[in-house]
Design goal:
By secondary structure, this protein is α/β, with parallel strands linked by helices. It has 11 helices and 10 strands.
Length: 302
Amino acid sequence: MVARHHRNGQKVTDMAETPVTVIGMGMMGRALAAAFLQAGHPTTIWNRTPGRAQALVEAGASEAPTVGAAVTAAPLVIVCVRDYDAVRDLLAPAETELSGRALVNLTSGASDEARAMAGWAADHGAEYLDGAIMMTPPGIGAPETVILYGGPSAAYEAYEQTLRVLGGGTTLISTDVGLPSLYDVALLGIMWSTFNGFMHGAALLGTEKIAATDFLPMATDWLKGVASFLTAYAHQIDANSFAAADATLETQVPPVRHLIHESRMRGIDATMAEYTGELLAEAIDCGHALDSYARVIDHFRR
């Protein structure tokens, strides 16, 4: 049986018969629409430049002639485009049609942009959810794919099963629409730091003709161990107490110097290692030589 909700006088469903509109036919937008189609949702698509999603039309999607027609085709409107300015520009001709519908914005942006967009949607009578997709297009629809949402609980719950089609890790992280974007950039920062650390290590070993694929198993095992330190550090940060249980800041200085020396000697860029050395020196100069590495958070808080 399909669960039904009555919202704004309009009967909608939260299972396979829920009509969905997807606006924006870039790689991610096409992946979102394909997932809805595969799950049996009547799916309408629209893109500023028509004809970019012929394969989806052939698979059963309806391509709307205008953005207004796309919005009126479904109670649930998903938008995923370049940036938040583009969202407003594309939806401007359909402002009236947005009233009474749920607008789910999966465009990447910042927390202040998400909060401003929520206000804009409310001004036009739409319920608003902001989401952060923590996956690339090929992973859309997978059980492990995480998509973080922020916004009113009622709006999320009404369409939760439909949105879960896009990823098994679908979660309402907060009623604050700005927090998904904040989590997004925080997690991406970890990703890029990890990527850069691996590239630096692979470059170092490459000077001895050691293949990156040979380095990879050791690097991934090492990351598991490194992740284990984060539990203790997270508790220290929340308690604002940084007694070292693994290694003090002063004991980390020599290994960082070795990394800098090895990099320079082999002609490998040492900027990241030098930055780490600066963080350690700053914390030690502030009297924290015997604290754990978590103490470095003081630098970022400032």
